[in-house]
């Protein structure tokens, strides 16, 4: 039966995907994962609440008919509509905000974070939070809090400029609270952080169960990013306090947490998640869509695929390639993938590094490729040099294509590779170069490793396993009103195939 685009179908479960900087406005591994879920479950209804940059980002995916609406929530565009509260409402909101920022800065007051957050969410829904945070009173509240005696941040002598900066950043970070959050079905946050905010609000207001999937560890990546952020310590302390307490609140309140690898589970348990609420569900690919890549290039080529971003650490890869080329002068490094807006300076830095090392002509940035399989086929060995990953699609896609891989030991990489690839420490050009040279010099080893890699994908990481597991989770969360579901036959089959423990199990 044909279903008109956006129509509500009787009996169909509704899932609201909560995304940040990914589907359906951007390409990349998480976006691919979202598209696979949506297109793989035409029997369910979907909505998407997407946190974006300016709100002007185009939809770059073909959104299927069973997606009812796509709501863009810009963090850095025009300020949300609304007007500042007056009189007693303003006093109450100021008190709620004071409790909120106190929780971010004072370890003795952290239990106030959740209650204050939900009060702010109601103010956001009424259109008064953003105007309040753009006013002088919010700045005065923060200034008074972080100058209290006994708070460590006071020792850093925060300035008025710090207060303005921190308040502005918080105002932007809290904008997703004003999104039209779901009132039914399941809210599925496909990352931690600000994408979860509409889901927490929906849980608080309407009891909508929250499902949280972390591909990378959002909090860890904020810690990495803020190391070089251009802010003074008082600002960093406030924002990192926000991200930490938001992660802890998300872990505590989620009906189920489905990390993409077991490494993430350690962070989630440390952040307060109950072990029985965590279930590892690996990413999957369709082996038929990523068949063996065929003949290798005639001269030695290292290939890489992904988005050009500092977290991918292309500088280490380029330095490693320079060491490879010292041994194999005809070698080339081919880099496939787009450069996100704002990342142009990083790409230029990488190009300058290759030129400085004397290998600029052998390192090529080839942009997005129409068929990603071509990127894997382009190399004798596929490289992954990231300093943070979840369970990377590019890695299991390359493995499905039967290519030998060299990857950094971050996130779920070792879980993906097993003994079917080489894993080296991150930020270690010498180790990466040695692994690449070992494979480039041994065609038989490359062939055997590629065959083992494809077999590993077929046995453990297929798309069908992933989709069946999430369909079961969606239906059971809907049926149980947010309680963690028990394992279904599909879950047990997935676990038996190496996909982790059944839902509700304490191991995963």
Automatic annotation (TrEMBL):
Pfam families to which the protein is assigned, alphabetical: DUF3492, Glyco_trans_1_4
Residues covered by the DUF3492 domain: 14-276
NCBIfam families associated with the record: PelF
Protein name from the UniProt record: D-inositol 3-phosphate glycosyltransferase
Species whose genome carries this gene: Streptomyces plicatus
Gene transcribed to yield this protein: pelF
């Amino acid at each position: 039966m044909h279903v008109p685009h956006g129509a509500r179908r009787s009996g169909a479960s509704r899932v609201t995907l909560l995304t940040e900087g990914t589907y359906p406005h951007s390409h990349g591994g998480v976006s691919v994962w979202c598209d696979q879920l949506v297109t793989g479950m035409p029997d369910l209804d979907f909505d998407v609440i997407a946190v974006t940059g300016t709100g002007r980002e185009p939809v770059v995916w073909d959104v299927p008919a069973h997606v009812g609406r796509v709501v863009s929530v810009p963090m850095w565009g025009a300020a949300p509509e609304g007007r500042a509260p007056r009189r007693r409402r303003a006093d109450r909101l100021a008190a709620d905000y004071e409790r909120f920022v106190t929780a971010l800065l004072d370890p003795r007051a952290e239990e106030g974070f959740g209650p204050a957050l939900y009060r702010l969410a109601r103010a956001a829904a009424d259109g008064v939070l953003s105007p309040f945070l753009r006013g002088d009173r919010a700045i005065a509240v923060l200034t008074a809090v972080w100058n209290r005696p006994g708070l460590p941040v006071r020792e850093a002598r925060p300035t008025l400029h710090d207060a303005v900066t921190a308040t502005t950043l918080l105002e932007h970070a809290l904008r997703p609270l004003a999104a039209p959050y779901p009132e039914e079905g399941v809210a599925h946050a496909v990352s931690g952080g600000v994408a979860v905010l509409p889901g927490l609000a929906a849980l608080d207001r309407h009891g909508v169960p929250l499902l949280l999937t972390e591909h990378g560890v959002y909090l860890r990546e904020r810690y990495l990013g803020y190391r070089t952020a251009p802010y003074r310590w008082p600002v960093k302390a406030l924002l990192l306090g926000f991200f930490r307490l938001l992660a802890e609140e998300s872990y505590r309140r989620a009906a189920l947490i489905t990390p993409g690898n077991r490494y993430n589970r350690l962070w989630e348990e440390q952040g307060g998640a109950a072990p029985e609420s965590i279930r590892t569900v690996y990413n999957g690919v369709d082996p038929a869509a990523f068949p063996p890549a065929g003949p290798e290039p005639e001269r030695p080529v290292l290939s890489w695929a992904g988005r050009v971003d500092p977290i991918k650490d292309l500088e280490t890869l380029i330095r490693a390639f320079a060491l490879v080329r010292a041994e194999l002068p005809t070698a080339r490094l081919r880099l496939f993938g787009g450069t996100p807006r704002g990342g142009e300076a990083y790409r230029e830095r990488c190009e300058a590094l290759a030129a400085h090392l004397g290998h600029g002509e052998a390192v090529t940035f080839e942009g997005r490729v129409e068929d990603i399989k071509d990127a894997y086929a382009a190399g004798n060995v596929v490289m992954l040099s990231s300093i943070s990953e979840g369970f990377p699609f590019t890695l299991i896609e390359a493995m499905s294509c039967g290519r030998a891989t060299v990857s950094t030991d971050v996130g779920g990489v070792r879980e993906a590779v097993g003994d079917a690839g080489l894993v080296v420490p991150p930020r270690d050009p010498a180790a990466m170069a040695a692994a690449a040279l070992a494979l480039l010099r041994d065609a038989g080893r490359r062939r055997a490793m590629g065959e083992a890699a494809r077999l590993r994908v077929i046995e453990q990481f297929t798309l069908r396993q992933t989709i069946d597991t999430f369909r079961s989770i969606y239906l059971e969360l809907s049926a149980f009103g947010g309680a963690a579901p028990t394992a279904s036959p599909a879950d047990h089959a997935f676990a038996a195939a190496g996909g982790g423990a059944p839902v509700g199990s304490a191991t995963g």
